[in-house]
Design brief:
This protein has helices spanning 116-121, 123-126, 130-152, 191-202, 239-260, 262-268, 283-294, 305-317, 370-379, 388-395, 408-416, and strands spanning 23-36, 39-46, 49-56, 69-78, 86-97, 156-157, 163-164, 175-179, 182-186, 204-212, 225-234, 279-282, 323-327, 340-341, 344-348, 350-355, 358-366, 401-407. The protein has 436 residues and is an alpha+beta fold. It has two domains: 13-97, OB fold (Dihydrolipoamide Acetyltransferase, E2P) (Beta Barrel); 124-424, Bira Bifunctional Protein, Domain 2 (BirA Bifunctional Protein, domain 2). Strand 4 (69-78) and strand 5 form a beta hairpin. Helix 3 (130-152) packs across helix 6, helix 3 crosses helix 11 and helix 7 (283-294) packs across helix 8 (305-317).
């Protein structure tokens, strides 16, 4: 009977100091290789970080190309000059896979010397750069903290269809698809379905999923596919409860990222803001502030991108983080399901959250009475018959409810000070990009 061969136990780069004096195997990518006499110093990179490996004699003469996938075995020894205080004295090297094409740019520098389009064209390579890699580790932590907080608050995670028969926002900005001979669309929001799940008795629900907007914009703030962090809750008295929930949620998300992503934040030079009370400013007042302080006129009932930036600047100058809830939007620019404001039916019990000059959240209380919802549909030239399954929910009894949606890529970009939301998107889908 042949002996069973035990596989090598792999150690991660970050774990190397725990194995001082032991022989271990590292596996990863060659980040850099420097030859000095009969020595070669190889920096190996894996998911946990980097480790210095020293090759001597014949091993040092081996040509190890940058970005080769390798396995190196050796003894862990003390090295005061190494970043971790240890290094691997290598006794064996196996090249698992080597590049078969020239690298389009160097990725082992602190800053990539490549334009954004080139970076996105070669996304798999660019994401190996430690700084770019850190962006998505932080993004994952944000999404994980979002889920953690809401689960602890009694919310149930849901999973809703992304192929739908009608538009959530009244039919605009939809991607049509052929669904076995019938016309269907990619979902621009899980709005109807998360309301349905509230009405089905779950009361508090959330979802992390892609949404699709067929917008013609080609700007630093727009994507045609992005990840939406959606929340909906029943038995609310007003949209104030939703803004209080999001304030606590962001406080937790930012705090968790600060704890779990300290090395990544340090690499990017980012300090996570402490979320205290967030100012609530009605739209009309916000427009007046911008006009009075900066001489800036705003479009009717809304702020343009410059106005959003100036309002956050105004709030930050008062010594607070650049976070502000914009409230009391006019009905004509909000969706048909937005609840009218109790003091003025031309306004809505809805809000946006601006963060460092950009809208990252839209939310508000929804209409829960069927006759009011039908009237709202008709006032916008929409046929109630086209929303039969949705309206049935309200005819069967629906509690007062509301929710919000956070754009994960925008939130990440604003937190990290990235100039373009595509930098916070692993594989962007914008007006012109379908690959990779």
């Amino acid at each position: 009977m042949s002996a069973i061969v035990q596989p090598e136990v792999r150690v991660l780069a970050a774990q190397l100091p725990l194995h001082l004096g032991n022989t271990v195997t590292l596996k990863g990518w060659v980040h850099n290789c420097r030859k000095m006499g009969n020595l070669a110093f190889v920096v190996l990179r894996d998911r946990s970080g980097m480790a210095q490996c020293v090759l001597e004699g014949a091993l040092a003469d081996r040509a190890l190309e940058n970005e080769s996938v390798v396995a190196v075995t050796g003894r862990v020894v003390a090295a005061p000059k190494a970043a971790s205080g240890v290094e691997l004295s290598v006794s064996a090297v196996t090249v698992i896979s080597a590049p078969t094409m020239a690298l389009p740019f160097e990725i082992n520098k602190k800053e990539l010397k490549a334009g954004l389009e080139a970076v996105l064209d070669h996304r798999v390579l660019s994401l190996r750069n430690p700084k770019l890699h850190a962006v998505f580790s932080i993004q994952a932590a944000l999404a994980g903290a979002f889920r953690e907080y809401l689960a602890n608050e009694g919310f149930t995670q849901i999973f809703t269809p992304k192929i739908v028969g009608t538009g959530t926002e009244g039919g605009a900005n939809l991607f049509p698809i052929d669904y076995f001979g019938e016309k269907a669309f990619l979902a621009q929001s899980p709005q109807f379905y998360k309301q349905m799940m509230v009405g089905a008795g779950y009361e508090r629900v959330f979802e992390i999923a892609p949404v699709y907007r067929a917008e013609e914009h080609n700007t630093s703030r727009h994507l045609n596919e992005y990840t939406s962090l959606d929340v909906e809750m029943g038995f609310i008295d007003s949209e104030e409860e939703l803004m209080a929930l999001e304030t606590g949620l962001l406080r937790h998300m930012f705090g968790r990222v600060g704890e779990s992503c300290a090395p990544e934040l340090a690499l990017l030079g980012v300090a996570v803001p402490e979320v205290g009370d967030i100012a609530h400013i009605p739209m009309a007042e916000a427009q007046a502030i911008i006009l009075r302080t900066y001489g800036k006129l705003s479009p009717k009932g809304d702020l343009d991108p410059e106005g959003e930036r100036l309002l956050c600047q105004y709030v930050a100058e008062a010594g607070k983080p650049a976070l502000v809830f914009l409230t009391r939007y006019p009905r004509e620019i909000r969706p048909m399901y937005a609840m009218p404001a109790p003091e003025d039916p031309t306004l809505t019990a809805s809000f946006d959250l601006l963060f460092n000059g950009l809208e990252v959240t839209t939310g508000g209380q929804r209409i829960h009475r069927p006759e009011m919802l039908i009237a709202s549909l008709r006032s916008r030239g929409l046929s109630p018959e086209s929303f039969g399954a949705y309206l049935e929910l309200f005819q069967l009894g629906m509690p007062p409810h509301g929710g919000f949606a956070i754009g994960l890529e925008r939130l990440t970009a604003r937190l990290l000070g990235l100039a373009n939301v595509r930098e916070a998107t692993s594989f962007p889908r914008d007006r012109t990009r379908l690959t990779p």
